[in-house]
Amino acid sequence: MQMLRRDNSNPCVLRSRIISSIDSFAPLPSVAMRVLDKITDPDTAVSDLEGVLRSDVSLVTSILKLANSAFYGVRRQVDSLRHALLLLGKSEVQSLVLARVMFKAFKSPTGAQKALMVGVWKHSLECGLAAECLASQLGEEDAFYFLCGMLHDIGKLVIIQKFIREVDGFDHYGKMEEEEGLGLELDLLGCGHDELGAMLLHRWMFPEELEIIVGTHHDYAGIASCNRAVQILMLANLLCRWVAAQDLFEAEEAGEASVIALRGLLLRAGETSGIISSAGNLVQVEHAYRKYLVEKVDLLEMLQM
Fold it and tell me: For 76, which DSSP code?
């Protein structure tokens, strides 16, 4: 396959290629869109959600499997969809629906491509939980923020599937730090994964608010003027990256400087947004998030690629 190179003299050519790649994704299944619409609507009753879900037998099976997992500790088997929905809540059901959408939308990768996708997917799950945890502490609607976290890096999946083998220069993309990788995206494609993600969500007719949140989640310099949803997602993204970096450092796989830099960025962004007031508050937020990860381990395992 001939490698594509960015033609700086004619950026419209590459832009056209990007738009064509986004348009090549099939529309989301109607049942998925209906479920996501119901879940993000605070007025949705369990009976409304149940009616939509019943049209997808395999999804119902997955929901029942999660409801009967060890974490929920039910004494009797959960064998009805309504019971499972009441037990799980919107966030877990939403994550299952979204996982199915992602698995079907992105063709099954192999080798190095699969390893990259698994890494992005794992981070997206953790970011979703971090956003949900922060939102819960702030009294916000946590199911919506889980969705934001799950979707924030979907543009990276677009790059891995559509461009990483076709555009020259992405050889070490998976080994780069977040900011370095974003810079490479801008250099090679003329846009970052944040913009690509927003374009795909527009293609899939997600709410405009989600497009904006996903498309601006790296604008840390402008965090003070961002709306609350973007601020929470930015902090969730930094929080789960910081926690992961600490764990890697303890395993001697990451430098201390990287951990310190992430902590500093997280604290500055948190103080600027008013969500994190001090270093002590940051430690409390970290502990709450780690506890949340432990509580949600069954969900994480079920949704792994």
Answer: S
Q: What digits encode the pLDDT tens for the residues 43-58?
A: 878 888 888 888 888 8
Strand ranges for the chain from DSSP E: none
Angle subtended by helix axes 111-137 and 228-250, to nearest 10: 120
Domain borders along the chain are: 14-303
Mean pLDDT on 203-216: 91
**What does the DSSP 8-state code read for residue 4?**
B
Looking at residue 118, its pLDDT comes to 84
Angstrom distance (rounded) from CA 34 to CA 205: 11
For 136, other C-beta atoms within 10 Å of its C-beta total: 16
**Interacting residues of 175 by C-beta distance below 8 A, sequence separation 6+:** none
Alpha carbon distance 150, 131 (integer Å): 9
Say what the pTM is.
0.84
Q: Write the CB contacts of 209 (distance below 8 Å, at least 6 apart in sequence).
A: 229
Superfamily, domain 14-303: Hypothetical protein af1432 (1.10.3210.10)
pLDDT at 76: 87
Q: What H or E segment, with its residue span, contains residue 271?
A: helix 256-273
Q: Tell me the Ramachandran region of residue 255: left when phi exceeds 0, alpha when psi lies from -120 to 50, beta otherwise.
A: beta
Q: Which residues pair with 4 in a beta bridge?
A: 167
Contacts of the segment 209-216: beta carbons below 8 A, 24+ positions apart? 210/147, 210/148, 210/151, 213/148, 213/152, 214/148, 214/151, 214/152, 214/154, 214/155
Per residue in 217-261, pLDDT (tens digit) is 998 888 998 999 999 999 999 999 999 989 888 876 667 888 898
